[in-house]
Amino acid sequence: MRPVRINRYTLSIGMLMIICVAxxxxxxxxxxxxxxxxAGGSSGGDGSGTGESAPxxxxxxxxxxxxxxxxxxxxxxxxxxxxxxxTVSLSTISLRSGNAVIPGKVACSDSRxxxxxxxxxxxxxxxxxRVTTGVKDTTGIPLASDYTWEFTTLGRAAPSAQSHWAAAIxxxxxxxxxxxxGTLWAWGCNAAGQLGDxxxxxxxxxxxxxxxxxxxxxxxxxxxxxxQLSSLAIxxxGTLWAWGRGTLGDGTTGLKVSPVQIGSDHDxxxxxxxxxxxxxxxVKTGGTLWAWGHNSSGQLGDxxxxxxxxxxxxxxPVQVGIDDxxxxxxxxxxxxxxxxxxxxLWAWGCNNHGQVGDxxxxxLENDIPVNAPIPVExxxxxxxxxxxxQYSLAIRSDGTLWGWGYNWHGQLGDxxQISRNVPVRAGxxxxxxxxxxxxxxxxxxxxxxxxxxxxxxxAGQLGDxxRDERHSPGQVGASRSWVAVTAGKYYTIAxxxxxxLWAWGxxxxGQLGDxxRDExxxxxKVQ
Length: 527
Prior knowledge:
This protein has 527 residues and is an all-beta fold.
């Protein structure tokens, strides 16, 4: 399975990446502003001074509880007394979104203090601003008490009924999808809160959804990734968000039933999350590679782990090496493959079925994980990758398709059920354009728009109307209009060039999105 970004075949939403620059400056020189004659906004009772000489917050912009605040807003705080500039800094004036501290710069003049975020704020997000008692007036008297207030930023227009599907990704038993209007939708299993709609997470299936439900009110989502119990997404401004259960990257291991921002960086580009173990890998716009979560098989790639313990896990993102030429990345059960900007292919993590692809591994009784990136067939050039549970698929620059790792159900597509520790050719065709590895079945699209599947078919996930396993690629129907495909656990999701979304296979949690819980052996339209 691979993370998805909206591709050139769809009416895609644009991603605007603004690199986060934290300007750690203190309060600057005067701005020449004397403030309003009658301060606007509401004054918070908890910010009033307890003595006549203590400075108090008289008003704020945005006001406390304000909604539809522009994302390029500057936060202003007005005080009852002139403020000592040296007491105003990023330690006394702060802005947060969840656990993420928003970087920026401060400036002050007389009784006015301004905080300017270093980047546009996210749409439809709740922000908390705070002024601490470290702020003092020009006579040295501090604010009587901390002052805190919240506001909500503006969202895009409501989703259009005519909006089409632009991208989709299948997790184990839940799906995330983005429409062309930038809204994010989810359906399927919600036992771990992985749908992000504020419900679920109790371990039951009481909050599963068999039709798409909207995730929040934001309309600026640009990339999505889904694992077993968790979800990831990137917004237009490059912020990374996660929800569900597991090591999400926010420094905790708790349950999150709605999206939470991971850190404060605004330069995330390409994420993917593990299919079974809770770990994540992601590329930033500058080409650096980061990972976090479980590391028992060295899947974080930072040179630690691989001892089959959790001693080297990380609750927050850690950089993989120092290189800045990573392009795309794919996470499997507990192994990773990645392509650099020079089209070279690299892999690391668990290697018990040879899924690292370097010619080693494949020994179930003596697994030796690889805990740092190593090259896979360095003389070849690669354009696309996808990782299944314990296998990988990749496309070369000449349009040929290759697979390696576990092959018990023929998911490598080489006509056998023999696991491989080096890439082997899948079928004899060329012209492959995109590929998706699921639990133990595979799917791919050719340049002519035809869709092909192979591997396990116990629930009809191959979409050919049967339950017959197939060990080499076979075409799904006669359509030549397929533009994207993703594979989950015993089901498949695909998009056609008219923006319609289709699904088939197992449907116990409603993961096909057609409003039923019935298995489908051929494609049905997602509602």
